[in-house]
Amino acid sequence: MAWTPHQQLKHVAREVRLMVDTQIACLTDEVLPALEKKGVNLVDYDELHSHEKDLLRLYFKSSLEPILTPLAVDPGHPFPYIGNLTSSIAVVIRDPYDDAMQFAIVSVPSGLNRWKSLAFTKSDKQKRNTFVSVEQIIINNLDLLFGGMDIKSAHVFRTTRNADVARNEEEADDLLEMITDEMRELRFAPFVRLEVDCEMPLEVVHRLTVELGLSDKDDVYSICGPMALGELDSLPVKHKLNSPLVYPPWTAKTHPRLQGADIFEVIRKGDILLHHPYHSFVTSTQHFVEAAANDPKVVAIKATLYRTSNDSPIISALAKAAESGKQVAVLVELKARFDEVRNMGFAQKLEDAGCNVAYGLVGLKTHCKCIMVVRKEDERLRTYVHIGTGNYNPHTASVYTDFGLLSCDPDLGMDITDLFKYLTGYHRQVAFRKLLVAPGTMRSEFIWLIEREITNAQGGKPASIIVKCNGLDDQVMVTKLYEASRAGVKIDCIVRGICRIRPGISNVSDNIRVVSILGRFLEHHRVFRFENGGKPEYYIGSADWMTRNLTLRVEVVTPVEDESLKKELQAMLDACLCDRRKAWEMGPDGRYQLLGVGTMRSPPRKHTPQAASPNLITAVETMGLHEGLMQTVAKRCRKAKMVKLRKKCGSTVKSRRQYDTS
């Protein structure tokens, strides 16, 4: 259908309303009652006892009233500025003096704690997990803000401004200056959505839409429950250590090969595959950069930064390296959505330390995750590289699943060197030795790999493809996968987010399976496996199979060639395809069903593990992917630590099993 943008937005709005209603119903009918049984309560102000209301009034006077500003809206008071994704209260009041009806806005400051506990003293443990929202506290004490007025109605609303920017990078004289101007403009971007309390009077809704330049019919979302559900994450719940509501604590483990060893020496002995958050980011990737910064033999460090944390140790290490006289070049992507201001600050800090900083390429986002370290060894230079699937961010590395490859392979070193010549200077690379790079040849090389599987399937050879990524929407890749399915290639797509593929359609996608895994960690790594007639090839990198990644971003995917690392990748893919606890199977209609329950007790096509141990598969089937991998990695790291300890101390150290008399 050739829909106009306006028609498309109307269709989107209709579907989103259904999703919002389903989401609110799930919260109010299922989640909140279940939390109440566990002692966590979100209560309405009207349900409170009079003494609790009195205490909240005192709280309002001391902690809220001084920072709230009642804003009249009339010919002498223009409609106030309202920020993006902020909550406000629309108030209709009557002035008893002349019986006139007036309209006012009270903006809820974004820095406020959203939830107030009803435990007013530390000793009051009974109410410590009972909360009321700050909006309700404000609404029920508005008489203090509008003294002498009669409050006729007060309802919460929330606004969303357009976060998309029409860029003209080709005409920009200075990319940093352009992004700085954009950040100022975004504060005043047009409104695109208005969420309102479902009990808000229609005349108030209409007034808000007129003031905000929105349509009553298309842009208003009526919410029968709390808004800004993401802020539920900020509930200050006090849990017991063994509470079933929280995950048991997990501490990432140091990779077995990196335990107490010189990292460059270990890499020279063979490539290392890091798997976060099971392997510690701090003692691997971060340590790699910090060791390079402190090593007098290191002469140069180059890195790409897309997103990182406010207190990034990677930034500090790069700055330290530059201050010590090393050649440091960093590409900081200023166009990383919602991280523009933070990245501008990092870029300035790195420049002040003496780093050579590039801000990105015109017309492209640099999304690849690469670090190269050049070290002088035996009168020659050796290049060490880290190529990852996730950002150089220690905080997200504790909750996102990602792979990172540490290597000193000369071909990879030369490829990354050529890549940085392209990123920081003027360089055209026709082809790379091993890397697949977008927006150059990555898509065409993936297509060639799929076509090879098609040829093998038609020739009676083993043919299969496993794609693990965050999103799969590129029409070219989707069309090619359908073609491969019709040729008899077995295809498994492990796609956490948006997926254009529809599996199980007769004569189109009979051989395609689509799985999404949602659990304790955010599935974030990108892994690609091609059977290659019985000699499987594995690739990892930063690119999803989405049009934006393959055509509008600089992405890097690297082959993994070490046989032991291939087995590690295969074991992880086996585990994903055998999960019966956190995996959702997509049907031909695009809907997902949780595996292991109801009509989806077993997947349409059973996966036969190729590298994963029976213990891992059993753990994954019973506990889920993340819990199974946590258990397996912890055992391997413990075992490696004991082996090293025995080697160090000789036969005086006995194994754990020898001490376990039970």
From TrEMBL:
GO terms for molecular function: ATP binding; metal ion binding; polyphosphate kinase activity. Keywords: ATP-binding, Kinase, Magnesium, Metal-binding, Nucleotide-binding, Phosphoprotein, Transferase. Residues 262-428, 435-594 form the Polyphosphate kinase C-terminal domain. The keyword Zinc does not apply. GO terms for cellular component: polyphosphate kinase complex. It comes from the Eukaryota. It comes from Ceratodon purpureus (Fire moss). GO terms for biological process: polyphosphate biosynthetic process. The lineage of its organism: Eukaryota, Viridiplantae, Streptophyta, Embryophyta, Bryophyta. Residues 52-232 form the Polyphosphate kinase middle domain. It holds the Pfam family PP_kinase_C_1. This is ATP-polyphosphate phosphotransferase. The keyword Nucleotide-binding applies.
